[in-house]
User: What shape does this take?
Amino acid sequence: TSFNPSTPSTNIVVFDDDSGGSPGRFRLSANLQAGTTYIMVVTTYSAGVSGAFSFTVVGPEAVALSQLNTR
Assistant: This one.
């Protein structure tokens, strides 16, 4: 599994920009395959904007998260 920033739409499973109940909040729902590595990519609406964010992952099994630094 990999992510190429020059083609960010390749291999998209699900995307959203603001259906999380208020402006600026997103909500994703996807049935993912156990034992498969997925890369979550989070961007802002406008280029050059950054800030703190958080997300919660829930499901019927344990989920392992790790940071992938592409810099």
